[in-house]
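User: Hey, my collaborator sent me this sequence without any context and asked if I could get a structure. I don't really work with proteins. Can you help?
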Amino acid sequence: MNTLELCCLAVVALWLVLRFAREPGASRGALAGRMVVVALAAWLAEDSCVRLYGFYGYSQTAWRVFVDRVPLLVLLIWPVVVTSALDLAGALRVRAARLPAALFALVVADAWFIEPIAVDAGLWAWTESGPFAVPTIGALGWGCFAAGVGLALSRGWPVVAALATGPLVCHALVLALWWGAFRWLPDTPHPWLHPAAAWVVALALVLAVARTRPDGLRGLVWLRTPAAVFFFSLLWLHGRDDDTRRCWRGRWRSPRRGWRCSRGRRRPRQSRTRGRAGAPAQAAVDVLIAPSTAPRSLTEARS
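Assistant: No problem. I've predicted the 3D structure and written it out in structure-token form, which is a compact way to encode the shape of the chain:
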């Protein structure tokens, strides 16, 4: 493994230790089983997407250990992405019927942040054009897979059903989105349009969480802190001299600053007011800073 893969492995390992420490002992086996299923389903979805569509591919320079067309570390990261989204959906008290849609939205929010950074860093590349060299359907593809996993869980099916629903729903939604819309739409007319849209989505997330006022979000944010440090480091290295990317970076950092103002459930009147802004802020961070790695790219595609 190279330095990048060792860093990713360290982030995943730390997340697993902290996450399993939070899980009640009786349900740790079920959590582990679900994560294994998600990793296998992610491999089926990603490997088939790379082979069938050729829209993206992973760099053999950045990644050394592959399982066919997909880096091993990507497969280890996918369960973290999906489980993090499931945790947030639980904190937001999302009903079972809405779980696929919620996972779609939360994981796409992660992807919007991670995709431009990863492409700039040369982790993967796309053959289709788009803002920051990432086609819009690229970020949506992450959510399509997560929605497929959520479908199995929301129906109360055995978790192994996600081995089928994850890849199948992913392919069905990606094809529908591509041929129904993105195949015919023009490229983004201006590079600032994408960050502006991201700012609108971030503010909408903050407002939505402010209305819900969920509990237990602080722990979810701290779980994601190592991954946040990793991706913000890549962003600093690869996007610090670009005004548009600085705007993009600020759109994720401002909610995080708001969360820092929060001080817990019992506090003076003034702090409590700030805390209401902090809880949504943390949710935005939780949504957006996941340690993800998902499908994408083809400039240095694996042959």
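In plain terms: Confidence is low (pLDDT under 50) at residues 254-303. You can pass these tokens on to your collaborator as they are.
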